[in-house]
């Protein structure tokens, strides 16, 4: 069964048609690459899925429920987390605190409990800290839990964004250019990390320009050009598709 389904998604900003009839699905444990030239509409797809934008027409479904028009926090609570093209960490907070913010999305305690510091609230805080530390460990950042995010090297900040997404205990993660700015060895570590994520049964939708990463880990690839889907298929099919070659290289 497909966990995430986009059905004829269109997005218009005034007279600008950003997406036109975009349709694809993502199933459990699958990695799909969403690729295309700059301005193709890839991040717009992420913003529609996560409730930042509302589709002008079409429908987004998750686990059989329509999520079109939900707010970002509601989409997150359903199990869809994301990272961003431009790093959006809480720069003055530690790595652990960044992850704890995301883990609070799973908190069952209200404001009153937090103010009174009841025993159940303290247990909940301990659980949140433990889950957040586990997310850091998973991404190889366990020893940097107390480091302020702004002091971390760029590659580590990229991994911290993924750790923060994992801390929300998602079933689906949207990665927006996770390999941007990474060196070859860091890109290889990223590929291994994404493999471990899918081993947990988490599906991954990834926007990425590094074709070595895309072709190395994606089960299927969806290609956008000027907001229109021009191809989707296996990596080897996409590599040989003349429309894809033209979109990237020119006629």
Shape: globular
CATH class descriptor of the largest domain: Alpha Beta
Largest sheet, order of strands side by side?
Answer: 6-7-8-3-9-10
**Overall number of domains:** 2
Q: Say how many strands there are.
A: 10
Query: How is the CATH topology of the largest domain named?
Result: Rossmann fold
Task: Give the end-to-end Cα distance, rounded to a whole number of Å.
Answer: 38 Å
Estimated radius of gyration: 19 Å
CATH homologous superfamily name of the largest domain?
P-loop containing nucleotide triphosphate hydrolases
Main pleated sheet? 6 strands, mixed
Average pLDDT metric = 91
Q: Give the number of helices.
A: 10
The CATH architecture classification of the largest domain is 3-Layer(aba) Sandwich
Portion in strands: 15-25%
What structural class results from the helix and strand content? alpha/beta
Helix content: 25-40%
Query: pLDDT below 50 for ≥5 consecutive residues: which ranges?
Result: none
Order of helices and strands: EEEHEEHEHHHHEHEHEEHH
GO cellular component, one term: plasma membrane
Protein name: ATP-binding cassette domain-containing protein
GO molecular function: ATP binding; ATP hydrolysis activity; L-isoleucine transmembrane transporter activity; L-phenylalanine transmembrane transporter activity; L-valine transmembrane transporter activity
Pfam families: ABC_tran, BCA_ABC_TP_C
């Amino acid at each position: 069964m497909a966990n995430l389904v986009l059905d004829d998604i269109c997005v218009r900003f005034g007279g600008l048609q950003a997406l036109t009839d975009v349709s694809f699905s993502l199933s459990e444990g699958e990695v799909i690459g969403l690729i295309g030239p700059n301005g193709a509409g890839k991040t717009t797809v992420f913003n529609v899925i996560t409730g930042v934008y509302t589709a002008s027409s079409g429908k987004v479904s998750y686990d059989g429920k329509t999520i079109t028009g939900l707010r970002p926090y509601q989409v997150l609570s359903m199990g869809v987390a994301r990272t961003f093209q431009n790093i959006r960490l809480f720069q003055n907070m530690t790595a652990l605190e960044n992850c704890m913010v995301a883990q609070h999305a799973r908190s069952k305690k209200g404001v009153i409990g937090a103010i009174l510091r009841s025993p159940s609230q303290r247990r909940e805080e301990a659980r949140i800290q433990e889950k957040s530390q586990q997310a850091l460990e998973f991404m190889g950042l366990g020893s940097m839990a107390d480091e302020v995010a702004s002091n971390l090297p760029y590659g580590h900040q990229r991994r911290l964004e993924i750790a923060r997404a994992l801390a929300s205990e998602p079933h689906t993660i949207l990665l927006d250019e996770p390999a941007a700015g990474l060196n070859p060895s860091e890109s290889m570590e990223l590929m291994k990390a994404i493999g471990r994520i899918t081993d947990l049964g988490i599906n991954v939708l990834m926007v990425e320009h590094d074709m070595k990463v895309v072709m190395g880990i994606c089960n299927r690839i969806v290609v956008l050009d000027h907001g229109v889907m021009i191809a989707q298929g296996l990596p080897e099919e996409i590599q040989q598709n003349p429309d894809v070659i033209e979109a990237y290289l020119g006629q």
